[in-house]
């Protein structure tokens, strides 16, 4: 099995948009901070506060409008995938990085040279049940999914089309 560092390196080159232009992603969120229900209550929401360079690079360089997203609730029981969303904007600078009163302020970021980016995300559906991480780790077809790897902490993760299809089956959508 590949170590997480190797997976991250491989992800940067193997999780690009397919011939149809579609890519799939997983976004982690803490539901006490911002949940799938919170996303459902608004038309769209900037996915802000990402402060990891690999996650930022995925958002800035790879995400496109129309890409499909799995929403994963962390730091809650049960942890797992709770539903879907869609990317509905091109990447743009995260406005929170420029405001000293914001939690995600970055003194090194400048409007003329932003360090952090967001995309707007729109709610699509809530699954009937949480697809729990423990079960996902045992599911055939998800053995190499970034989420199921030991040490996988990235808040923005690419998902292969084949993995998306397995998740759709588990959610009763395929």
Give the overall form.
globular
The CATH homologous superfamily is called ph1033 like domains
The SSE string, one letter per element, is HEHEHEEEEEHEH
Task: Name the strands of the widest sheet in spatial order.
Answer: 2-7-4-3-1-8
Major sheet attributes: 6 strands, mixed
Number of strands: 8
CATH topology: ph1033 like fold
Q: Name the CATH architecture.
A: Roll
The CATH class turns out to be Alpha Beta
Number of domains: 1
Poorly predicted spans: 6-13
Domain EVE: 23-169
InterPro entries: 5hmC_binding, EVE_domain, PUA-like_sf, THYN1-like_EVE
Organism: Acanthopleuribacter pedis
Pfam families: EVE
Give structural notes.
With about 170 residues, the chain is α+β, with helices and mostly antiparallel strands. It has a single domain (about 5-170), classed as Roll (ph1033 like fold). It is about 25% helix and about 25% strand. The chain is built from 5 helices and 8 strands; from the N terminus they run αβαβαβββββαβα. It has helices at about 5-15, 35-40, 55-60, 135, 160-170; strands at about 25-30, 45, 70-75, 80-85, 90-95, 115-120, 120-130, 155-160. A 6-stranded mixed sheet has the order 2-7-4-3-1-8. A two-stranded antiparallel sheet has the order 5-6. A hairpin with a 6-residue loop joins strand 3 (about 70-75) and strand 4 (about 80-85). The protein starts with a helix and ends with a helix. Residues about 5-15 have low confidence and may be disordered.
């Amino acid at each position: 099995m590949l170590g997480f560092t190797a997976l991250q390196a491989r992800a940067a080159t193997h999780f690009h948009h397919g011939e149809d232009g579609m890519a799939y992603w997983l976004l982690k969120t803490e539901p006490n901070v911002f949940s799938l229900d919170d996303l459902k209550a608004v038309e769209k929401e900037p996915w802000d506060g990402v402060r990891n360079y690999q996650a930022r690079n995925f958002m800035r360089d790879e995400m496109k409008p129309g890409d499909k997203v799995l929403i994963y609730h962390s730091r809650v029981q049960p942890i797992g995938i709770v539903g879907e969303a869609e990317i509905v904007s091109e990447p743009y600078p995260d406005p929170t990085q420029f405001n000293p009163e914001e939690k995600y302020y970055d003194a090194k970021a400048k409007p003329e040279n932003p360090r952090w980016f967001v995309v707007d995300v729109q709610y699509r559906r809530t699954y009937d049940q949480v697809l729990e991480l423990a079960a996902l780790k045992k599911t055939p077809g998800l053995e190499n999914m970034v989420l199921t790897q030991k040490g996988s902490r990235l808040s923005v993760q690419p998902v292969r089309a084949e993995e998306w299809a397995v998740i759709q089956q588990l959610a009763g959508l395929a």
